[in-house]
């Protein structure tokens, strides 16, 4: 069955596109039929897709931010037959009232957050809207937070981790601050498509995220974690 993964945080610059593109690249490299759906008018995910060379594992792109009056919205957003994974990149400045439609049907909802006071406040508001406005139940265990661009043993990281520990939503993983994300984006690649010895530390931080997502595949059709090694 198709797994729908949405990456969301109304705060700009939280790393939504980085998470979405790297997830899509991982699944494609693992041999899964993957769709990257871009709701963000800035089109960062769409530009990344266009940079991918013909030798890269294929990823189908859907520019959901575009409105085409010649076709119905449902037709525009229709998934190709046999799609295994849909990764959805959402826009900044998303209102709470817009969340219910976006997250409806999502098997996993990822909220990336940076270690700063402003971003911690924005993350709190985002999760509150997901729970109270979009009516995502905590018991469904669909929401996971990603601590993004972190540096070890810093005071602000400690503040972030303490905050996340109080909201009852799991911290899925902590992604380190690394120039390798920029290098990958410039080439239209994901970390899992780069040379493993260059990105070994980064890949280790992705392992718990992939495991968490695999546990939420509809019907239990999980992708073996060996895909991490196979993709590099």
Give your account of this protein's structure:
The chain is α/β, with parallel strands linked by helices. It has helices at residues 16-29, 44-51, 73-76, 99-103, 117-132, 155-164, 180-187, 200-214, 226-230, and strands spanning 3-7, 34-38, 60-62, 85-89, 108-113, 143-150, 171-176. Strand 5 (108-113), helix 5 (117-132) and strand 6 form a beta-alpha-beta unit. Helix 1 (16-29) runs parallel beside helix 2 (44-51). The longest helix has 16 residues, at 117-132. It is globular and about 50 Å long.
Briefly summarize what is shown.
With 232 residues, the protein is α/β, with parallel strands linked by helices. The protein has one domain: Rossmann fold, CATH 3.40.50. The chain contains 9 helices and 7 strands; from the N terminus they run βαβαβαβαβαβαβααα.
Give the percentage of residues in beta strands: 15-25%
Structural class by sheet pairing and helices: alpha/beta
Order of helices and strands: EHEHEHEHEHEHEHHH
In DSSP terms, counting alpha (H) and pi (I) runs of 4 or more, how many helices? 9
Average pLDDT confidence is 89
Number of strands: 7
Strand order of the largest sheet: 3-2-4-1-5-6-7
According to CATH, what is the class?
Alpha Beta
> What is the CATH topology assignment?
Rossmann fold
Estimate the global geometry from the Cα principal axes: globular
Largest sheet: 7 strands, parallel
């Amino acid at each position: 069955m198709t797994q729908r993964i949405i990456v969301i945080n109304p705060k700009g610059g939280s790393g939504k596109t980085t998470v979405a593109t790297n997830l899509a690249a991982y699944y494609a490299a693992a041999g899964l039929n993957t769709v990257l759906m871009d709701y963000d008018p800035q089109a960062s995910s769409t530009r990344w897709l266009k940079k991918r060379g013909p030798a890269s594992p294929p990823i189908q792109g859907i520019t959901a931010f575009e409105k085409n009056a010649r076709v119905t919205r449902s037709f525009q957003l229709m998934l190709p037959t046999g799609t295994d994974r849909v990764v959805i990149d959402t826009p900044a400045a998303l209102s709470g009232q817009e969340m219910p439609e976006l997250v409806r049907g999502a098997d996993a909802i990822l909220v990336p957050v940076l270690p700063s006071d402003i971003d911690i406040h924005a993350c709190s508001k985002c999760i509150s809207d997901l729970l109270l406005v979009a009516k995502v139940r905590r018991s469904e265990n669909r929401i996971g937070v990603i601590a993004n661009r972190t540096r070890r043993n810093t005071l602000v990281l400690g503040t972030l981790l303490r905050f996340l520990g109080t909201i009852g939503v799991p911290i899925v993983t902590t992604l380190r601050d690394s120039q390798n994300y920029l290098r990958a984006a410039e080439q239209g690649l994901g970390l899992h498509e780069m040379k493993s010895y260059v990105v070994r530390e980064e890949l280790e931080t992705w392992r718990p995220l992939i495991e968490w997502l695999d546990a939420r595949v509809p019907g239990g059709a999980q992708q073996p974690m060996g895909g991490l090694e196979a993709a590099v």
